[in-house]
Amino acid sequence: MDKQRDFVLRTIEERGIKFIRLWFTDVIGTLKSVAIAPAEVEGAFAEGIGFDGSAIEGLTRSYEADVLAQPDPTTFQILPWRGEIDPTARMFCDITTPDGQPAVADPRNVLKRTLARAGERGFTFYTHPEVEFYLLKSAQVGEQGPQPVDSAGYFDNVPGGTAHDFRRRSVRMLEDLGISVEFSHHEAGPGQNEIDLRYADALTTADNIMTFRTVIKEVAIEQGVYATFMPKPFSQHPGSGMHTHMSLFEGDSNAFYEAGAEYQLSTIGRQFIAGLLRHAPEITAVTNQFVNSYKRLWGGDEAPSFVTWGHNNRSALVRVPLYKPNKGNSSRVEYRAIDSAANPYLAFSLMLAAGLKGIEEGYELPTEAEDNVWGMSDAERRALGYKQLPASLDHALSIMEDSELVAETLGEQVFNYVLLNKRQEWKAYRAQVTPFELRSNLEIL
């Protein structure tokens, strides 16, 4: 760590960095930032930067307000969009109490705690997110609703299209920040794009997702368009998910791989999926944390609504992707419910905790869903024992409230704050009179 700190201090001097932004997130996953001068960095490493945590969503209670932001030197990167005028860098921070203890409500610390639990069992947790988002002409919403930048579809190549330049610029900027991109392409909705980040350990991936969202927003501003990670901005077009591929490694060996097993999937892999399935309804209020998230889950267009798993079955909640011959380390499972607006630190914590629970308790994996789950009738799904994901944020919160797994993983303070914050959101949503009601009822009632 000392070597890394020395590298940061030396780079700041050599590159003429004028500002260093210290980044962290609140419980909802909003990026927070405080800028310090180069002269303050050494002191920040030694003592942290103090601030009033009670002013940040869910971070502390008012009687324990003082906290410190401790920069993590391994996350130091120069921000490419700032250019050569007043060069600026950033570091992610861990939030601590004045006596140096990790703040219990710091989302990054919640993930670190869960990763440490996996580490005690000899596991390292890797994730690979496929992040979808929409590009709009503007943030302004007129009578016709949001306006996408194009009318293209899945994998479309649009000569001279906005999205080409946008993705190229975004990918280059992400690479400049040390974030490797695997794929980028136009998605199924008009103006909808997907950029897939390369596999990394879950903490690095969560940091990368927070950086990714910022890069996408910055490039959009630069190019005169607007980017949104809203789960379902259009009722008639697909929502934006963040399908996440996951694997556990024991040293250099993929714990999900077993040569000769069905789908080359080991017992550990099968138990991990069983844990995800059993606890999926409990964690949905975090992986899908907004009222709007449930418009995506229940709006069709390949979003999973039922608790099933399958091999290469895109209607399933958990998918076991096609195995690559002679590539045991590529064995993985894909969780398809999580959307692009989730707090990645908390969501990854719960996805990992659910999988670990399956391993620890030896859960049995239910029968694979081989058919299109969306195409079945309710009676057929009931006969096969397919449970559904929560149908609304209110429904998800009522299930989460009774979950020991979620309470233990998030910790009391984060658990209670998520419930409080999201109940307020549901209450505000429930109280409104929508255009749908006015169109349906005003003239005939």
Automatic annotation (TrEMBL):
Family: Belongs to the glutamine synthetase family.
Keywords, ordered alphabetically: ATP-binding, Ligase, Magnesium, Metal-binding, Nucleotide-binding
Keyword DNA-binding: no
EC number of this enzyme: 6.3.1.2
GO molecular function, one term: metal ion binding
InterPro entries xref list: Gln_synt_N (IPR008147), Gln_synt_N_sf (IPR036651), Gln_synth/guanido_kin_cat_dom (IPR014746), Gln_synth_cat_dom (IPR008146), Gln_synth_gly_rich_site (IPR027303)
Limits of the GS beta-grasp domain: 15-100
Protein name: Glutamine synthetase
Cofactor section: Mg(2+)
GO terms classed as biological process: glutamine biosynthetic process
